[in-house]
Structure formats: structure tokens, C-alpha cells
């Protein structure tokens, strides 16, 4: 009996594309001395100064313990400062330092080059279609996750 190869599944294509994007950004960010996770955290912090670590973890789609490690490294490198919230002393507000703003500007220019290079591989119509198709993927997967037993919506 001859075994037939398992056809590739759509999920494997999505995962490989996401991994390739992450690897390309990691390579682009290396000269800025940033990881993709650090870059994402700095980018969200620049748009949401004072955001909590828990909210930042959700925005960057990582676990809170992972975000705490990212923030610890960013703080040790002088890129962020964390201060107790004015009213809620157990919540640390996180903000970029001037050095963090400079490093983010460098990293963002590098990451944007990757994004623009990727976008250039498609016509405007293809990009629009790709974004719409990926949006449908996301909607389906989020609804499928909330339909699982034991999950709360």
C-alpha cells in the first residue's frame, strides 16, 4: 500500500507566512538591538503612554509573564520607565524614555521597510483582497474559539 502525502492545510500556510514575517522583521530589527516582541511593545507604548503591562500583553498578543520579561529587558536597556500609578499604587505605568523613542524610530523605519517590501509584492487590488481574506480568517477563528466548550464570550 502506497501512502499518500497529507495535503497541506490552510493553517500551515498561515503559520509559515507569519513565521516568515517574524523572521524578516527579526533580521531587520537586529541592528536596532530589538526583538520583534520588544519592538511591538515599544510601538504600542508610543501610542498608549502609561498602559499597564497586562493591557500591553493583550495588545501584543503575548502572555503577561512574557510581557513582564520584555518590559524588564527594555527597562534594563533604558528604553522605558515604569512608575506607580497615581491612584493605584500596585499598577505600574509604563512610558518610553527619550532613548526608547530614538530606538523605536530606528526600529520602526526598519520594520516598515519589511512591510512595504511585502506590500510591493502585490497589486493594490491583491493587497485589498488579501487583507479582506485574512480578516475573514481572523473572524472565523475568533468565533470558533468562542464556540468551544468552557469558553466564555
Automatic annotation (TrEMBL):
It comes from the Bacteria. Signal peptide: none annotated. One of its GO terms (biological process) is response to stress. PROSITE patterns: HTH_MARR_2. Pfam families: MarR_2. One of its GO terms (molecular function) is DNA-binding transcription factor activity. Keywords: DNA-binding. InterPro entries: HTH_MarR-typ (IPR000835), MarR/SlyA-like (IPR039422), WH-like_DNA-bd_sf (IPR036388), WH_DNA-bd_sf (IPR036390). Transmembrane segments: none annotated. PANTHER family: HTH-TYPE TRANSCRIPTIONAL REPRESSOR YETL (PTHR33164:SF43), TRANSCRIPTIONAL REGULATOR, MARR FAMILY (PTHR33164). Gene3D superfamilies: Winged helix-like DNA-binding domain superfamily/Winged helix DNA-binding domain (1.10.10.10). Residues 7-139 form the HTH marR-type domain. This is DNA-binding MarR family transcriptional regulator. SUPFAM superfamilies: Winged helix' DNA-binding domain (SSF46785).
Amino acid at each position: 500500500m502506497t501512502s499518500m502525502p497529507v495535503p497541506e492545510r490552510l493553517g500551515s500556510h498561515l503559520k509559515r507566512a507569519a513565521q516568515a514575517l517574524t523572521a524578516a522583521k527579526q533580521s531587520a530589527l537586529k541592528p536596532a538591538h530589538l526583538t520583534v516582541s520588544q519592538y511591538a511593545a515599544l510601538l504600542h507604548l508610543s501610542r498608549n503612554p502609561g498602559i499597564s503591562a497586562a493591557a500591553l500583553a493583550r495588545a501584543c498578543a503575548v502572555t503577561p509573564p512574557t510581557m513582564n520579561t520584555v518590559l524588564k529587558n527594555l527597562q534594563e536597556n533604558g528604553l522605558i520607565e515604569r512608575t506607580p500609578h497615581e491612584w493605584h499604587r500596585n499598577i505600574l505605568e509604563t512610558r518610553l524614555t527619550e532613548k526608547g523613542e530614538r530606538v523605536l524610530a530606528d526600529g520602526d523605519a526598519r520594520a516598515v521597510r519589511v512591510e512595504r517590501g511585502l506590500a510591493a509584492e502585490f497589486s493594490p487590488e491583491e493587497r485589498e483582497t488579501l487583507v479582506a481574506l485574512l480578516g475573514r480568517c481572523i473572524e472565523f477563528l475568533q468565533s470558533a474559539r468562542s464556540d468551544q466548550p468552557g469558553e466564555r464570550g
